[in-house]
């Protein structure tokens, strides 16, 4: 039995949750509240680095979201979510790593504003906006006439980038200058897996309260 320890608001968790849904797998969801539960001995026994998500498959624990996605693809290869073509596989890895290493940290700079909280360094925000624009241009150029990155079907590329890019308008980043990305986001948001895993207003309110408490 697969068990996913996750936090609904987390893009790292969400990409695994979406993959499980898209592959049609049976799994159990266990929410980890990041107000201290991640430091409890029972969770540290699953992941000593106290991060989510963690996937437990019987007696095997997998940490780090990209490792979890690769594990799921290797063990449950239907439907296939990674291409065989060398160029397409390179695009998968580029999009995944640029999304996680470049785009997500830049977007996180605007977290206080997204949550309606005070704070934010104008100089850092300007640099973050420039970084986001650079990443979006890069992604726009990688999209071709196929409906998804590298495929006519959803792949792990789309799942990783698609848990970050569609959130950008909520921090004031318009996608109108990127027509391919805009259309791609619309296709993702229409999928049941994205709708099922979308953070509810209640979840957002609870997350805002937790962040506000940490900042006070």
From TrEMBL:
Residues 1-80 form the GST N-terminal domain. It comes from Atlanticothrix silvestris CENA357. This is Glutathione S-transferase family protein. Pfam families: GST_C, GST_N_3. PROSITE patterns: GST_CTER, GST_NTER. PANTHER family: GLUTATHIONE S-TRANSFERASE GSTA, GLUTATHIONE S-TRANSFERASE-RELATED. Residues 85-207 form the GST C-terminal domain.
